[in-house]
Amino acid sequence: MRTDTPQTIFRKDYTPPSYLVDTVELGFDLDPARTIVASRLTLRRNPAATTRGIELHGEDIELVALRLNGKLLGKRDYTLANNLLTIRSAPDDVVLEIETLCAPDKNTTLSGLYVSNGNFFTQCEAEGFRRITFFPDRPDVMAKFTVMLRADKARYPVLLSNGNLLEEGDLDDGRHYALWEDPFKKPSYLFALVAAQLVCQEETFRLADGRDALLQVWVEDGNLDKTDYAMQSLKHSIRWDEEKYGLELDLDRFMIVATSDFNMGAMENKGLNIFNTKFVLANPRVATDIDFQGIEAVVAHEYFHNWTGNRVTCRDWFQLSLKEGLTVFRDQEFTADMIGTATGRAVTRIDQVRTLRQAQFPEDAGPMAHPVRPDSFVEINNFYTVTVYEKGAEVVRMYQTLFGVDGFRKGMDLYFARHDEQAVECDDFRRAMADANNRELGQFERWYSQAGTPVLRFEGRWDEAAQTYTLTLFQSCPATPGQPEKLPFHIPVAVGLLDAAGADMALVVDGQQRGTTAVLELTEAEQTFVFTGVTGQPVASVLRDFSAPVILQGGYTDADLLHLFSHDSDPVNRWEAGQRLAMERLLKLTGEAGANDDAAASLNLDETFIEALRKILVDETLDPAFREQCLTLPSESMVAEQLECVDPLAVHIARQFVRADLGTRLRNELLAQYEANATPGPYSPDAASAGKRALKNLALAYLNAAPDAASVALAQRQFDEADNMTDRAAALSALVAARVPQAADALAVFYDEFQNEALVVDKWFAMQALSPTTDLAAVRALMTHPAFTLRNPNRARSLVAMFCVNNPVQFHAPDGSGYAFWAEQVIALDALNPQVASRLARAMDRWRRYAPALQWQMREALQKVAGQVKLSNDVREIVGKALAN
């Protein structure tokens, strides 16, 4: 829907639906240009409703016929305006029959029913079902669906929908049919169908209750050799949910279908999960370790939605984090459990913290800041955000931190016992946690209703005579749009104390033994805790395992951080100490680079920091994966977030200097670790092997940050000889970033070898878009490549979004050309696919934080987009908020 004055929808205005839907019968005669959809709905008046008429949503579809209790309705019997069909007078019990037409082959939005590579797919979350037929398209209307699919058998031999297959057969006219039934109530956003030329890997899987379930992974012909890891991940997910939470697969079959045209990563439609190919297809030749990790996590995430999202769903879209935050937490715990080691769990936790710092904290500090449970929106698709997902997961994690694993499980059990097959609110989950653990959690609700990232400060004082350590915690939260003042949060702060030798002290707080890590509950703006029996001056390890999504400021000297970086038994805080040491130096060097035209020649990195990294690098008692995390510098965007006025070139010069200096001064150690972390033999994506490759390839990147003939030859040799995509792509990236002549030849060889592998071609575009050597002219040249198209979301993201979001030094070119390019591409994408366009529009969220010379050019680009006569609500909301706040 395009409008000049988009409507803002408020959570406070929620009203129950006027009618409830008990059953839905759908019939599809599938044709790319002209699909006929027939529906029969049984409705009954909702006794809780405050309105009388039947309201049905519909968008970009043609109404052919409408019958109420067998009577054909004329235009005088209903109104159809602003994508809402209203029948003002209807009895309490209604059978509504509707016939509509749609054109899937013209649906470039990839929302509703659309065609991809000649096949039919659907995407109905959040509001895509209204592009298929008229329906009360809201999550609190839950019904049982029966679906008949009819299509040409030669063109579409596979016909799939939700639930269980009841019947299939041939028709007289070369077509065939399949009848599907979903035995559980669901909202319309969970509906799905697929009609396609596909092949599948399938297995029969024995469930914990003794039933056998059919598991299928459907892909296009030629990709069957890339489905095994997705299948294994699905089986592991099913077993984990049985064992961890007592939740079983409730259908006779579970299907995953992969398509290359998909706006999201995947979708949890009941029993028929539709996935972006990126999160299904993998083998060592085409997929990296990160790809394998992503597949495992996303397959698990979508399967876990079967209970946390499908069986119990959202009352309204403001409650989106009820299902997404909870399910992200569940897939995070699954990933950690699959690794099975304490260090492996810590490494996954560090990845989660890095995502928060790099993406969610900036969102909290920008014009799109919103609570985990938003209060308003113009376009719900804009609120599939890192705040709803990742911060939402952190809110769920805090319950487990407060109550422990057993207490959290009790809360989950009570949640399902109370709300199975219901559409509920975030508050219902909070109440279940509170009631199951006999706790009052009223203040905890502020995590759902207040936007922004709380700032946590601490002061510590050791009293030698009294042998006490007094820790005072302070919390505050900056203003965000619409919320100038914040009340104190309920923050669990996990704390340990290290002695002079780096060992954990036994903790006694308020007379209670607390082991070596105490979870302190901060509920006031300022609160003091006293540790007794502290015989020596400690260094406090505050916020262990990142126990709350807050910004920890101050409290540490350089010596404290070095002590923690060398000794902390909590791996997350040990890593965090290294990040703080690195950030302090990056900020200092950025300031020097911005004040000096010949900055690179005058910058200097202290030996203390170098030596601290050297000790971590060569410490063979530490897992390679953890060492790789410790040696990875904060990104340029993370450095920029610490600055009041951002100079992207200065940030880039500073970080590149540190990388080159490390590559030079640690050259011998990096070479030794490169050789020591080889993974001979057949490729395996297991965590230990992936950790070794990560450290080896980080060493290669550092060596080529200050390239010489030997380091370039090392990268070239790895590129030529690698037997897996992880090592091949890492070597190519090192060559491209090193700005050496060999890079062009390697890029050509890589494309020639993988030009028929779409996901690898995405990598090829992305490597170039990310390189600081790739300027706008090079990006425009790549857009003319025969393999590039804006119509495919993965391809558009791999080049255009990667350049605008993740190549700051080139995107923020002083002449403003990057901003003009951004405006051009947002406008072009908006005409094709508003969801993809709005994601790209977010690249300019933080424009007010840049140097004045850049600000006015960024504002000009935003105004150009905002001034378009035809602009989707998706993009208009983003640019409007950016300009207003």
From TrEMBL:
Domain named Aminopeptidase N-like N-terminal: residues: 89-190
Superkingdom of origin: Bacteria
Pfam families associated with the record: DUF3458, DUF3458_C, Peptidase_M1, Peptidase_M1_N
Molecular function terms from GO: alanyl aminopeptidase activity; metallopeptidase activity; zinc ion binding
Enzyme class of the recorded protein, top EC level: hydrolase
Entry keyword set: Aminopeptidase, Hydrolase, Metal-binding, Metalloprotease, Protease, Zinc
Protein name: Aminopeptidase N
